[in-house]
Amino acid sequence: MSKPMLSVAGVKTQYGKIIALHGVDLDVNEGEIVTLIGANGAGKSTLMMTICGTPRASEGRILFEGRDITHMPTHEIMRLKIAQSPEGRRIFPRMTVYENLQMGAAMDDYAHFEGDLERMFDMFPRLKERLHQRGGTLSGGEQQMLAIARALMSRPRLLLLDEPSLGLAPLVVRQIFDVIRELNAIEGLTVFLVEQNAYHALKLAHRGYVLVNGSITMAGTGRELLESPEVKAAYLEGGA
Amino acid sequence: MDIFLQQLINGLTLGSIYGLIAIGYTMVFGIIGMVNFAHGDVFMVGTFTALIAFLLLTTLLGITSIFLVLAIVLVVAMAFTGLVSWAIERVAYRPLRGSFRLAPMISAIGMSILLSNFVQVAQGPRNKALPPILPDVIVVWDSGSYAVTLAYKQILIMVVTAVLLFAFWWLVQKTALGRAQRACEQDRKMAALLGVDVDRTISLTFVIGAALAAVAGVLYLTYYGVVNFADGFVPGVKAFTAAVLGGIGSLPGAVLGGLLIGLIETFWSAYFSIEYKDVAAFSILAITLVFMPQGLLGRPEVEKV
Fold it and tell me: What whole-number distance in Å separates Cα of residue A18 and Cα of residue B149?
């Protein structure tokens, strides 16, 4: 195996005196779907944001394609072709769906805008119907689709997805996971996925990590984790 | 009727100037949530830059075409004032971002005092006058006892304002820079996650706001023919009032507010008392803040969460 695309080594993140991540180590290889599962408050979103430099890691190193991005400004990190669909979706509420998608494409210099727009409509036909509506007026599911589409518009090499299933109807969740699987299988898109919905995430992912109170406690292939008694007990029992 | 028409013309002229200044307040407030108290003085720097450029061009270089002079003066004033505002943001506001909320505001008041004192020392405390520019008027309507006139410079002011507002609207609504600006205004962190250089966008917002204030400065100078180091204060606060009245953060609101304040001030002077015109304008500020703090066009739409 060559070097990983994204490598997080000994990363510690603090909010003031509160330590959110205690030295996290994790790799994402090119072409993989890797998932990070964990309970509320385990630090999943913090790790996702720390990769993007906001907040900054207080210790450790983050490499993307061999480059140290630990201290780079956020916008420069993202311009290396990392895209994030963040926690809470963060759609621009007073911009139309079209403008939100344009914001995504800005990083790609609008080079493939028209074609990519059509692709997004194929994946998420609802966005086409809502194209000139303001982001703030969309439903939760539509906003989630828009957040993913906006991230994809930048033609990322690495896609970071933070809880794409949160608060969505099972049918929409399945649709979104199908899209992720397809993008990975057909286009070789590398995906790092944070999920509470452990069952679906582990079924989708090649590999997974379990985060507990800011530390990685387990790692393995999706199947291994799905079958592990600890994971079953903590994240799958009664849930899924 | 004739006096009414005349005051309408005068009010719209004055209102155009306030509107141009108000955009700078409202844009900066929109993007970093701060009232830039130095903005009025940035406008005053614009008027002085215009004055100096005008005198240099006409007396030293002997250019006689008034439109050529005005065009050059506009460009010089916009560039220099933009630079001043850029420097202020860089030195006095950016280091305080992330500090407690009052810190940049206090810093802004400091910058305001610095600019007006600097101009007072460098240019002297007395009024500076220009020879009259574009003194001709058109008689719009003559009732026999009273002639309603429209001065060439009033036409100039309204035309320049309209053209600039259109260009500015296009910039904000249709260009990538304008989108980046609106994105920073709505969610700065997300904008950064989409590769927007937030610091640069904020800097540009200050520059654009200052450039519009500089245009207002040139027009103000053309209109009144005199400037004074203290001229940043009252027009500045009135433009701020305009921004609040229109709904701070709203660009069309700033223009609407500017026109309304210009009209209120002019009509008040004509029909009631000219001595109390500033009181009238500032009462509007107080009344708006108490009864309609969101202003006329501030954030009407309901957002789903």
Answer: 70
- Section B196-218 average pLDDT: 96
Q: Which of A:132-161 have CB within 8 Å of B? A: 134, 136-139, 150, 154
pLDDT above 90 coverage of chain B, percent: 71
**Cβ within 8 Å of A, B 161-180:** 176, 179-180
CA gap B179, B171 in Å, rounded = 9
How far is Cα B28 from Cα B251, in angstroms, rounded to an integer?
11
Q: pLDDT by residue (tens digit) across B262-299?
A: 999 999 998 888 888 888 888 888 998 898 888 888 87
Q: Look at strands B137-142 and B147-151 and give their pairing.
A: antiparallel
Q: Which residue bears the tokens 């220099």? A: B80
Range of the domain at A230: 1-81+158-240
d(CA A145, CA A151): 10
CATH number of the domain within which B175 lies: 1.10.3470
* The amino acid at A227: E
CA distance B41 to A18: 44
10 Å Cβ neighbour count for A169? Answer: 12
Domain count, chain A: 2
d(CA A105, CA B195): 10
- CB-closest option in A54, A94, A139 to B192: A54
- Cα distance between residue B119 and residue B42, in whole Å: 11
Phi, psi dihedral angles at A190 (to 5 degrees):
-85, 130
Pairing of strands A6-15, A59-64: antiparallel
Q: Measuring CA to CA, how many Å separate A159 from each of A152, A188, A191, A205, B12?
A: 8, 11, 5, 13, 53
CB A178 within 8 A of CB A187: no
Complex-level ipTM: 0.94
Using CA atoms, how far apart are residues A156 and A154, in angstroms rounded to an integer?
6
B126 in a structural domain:
yes
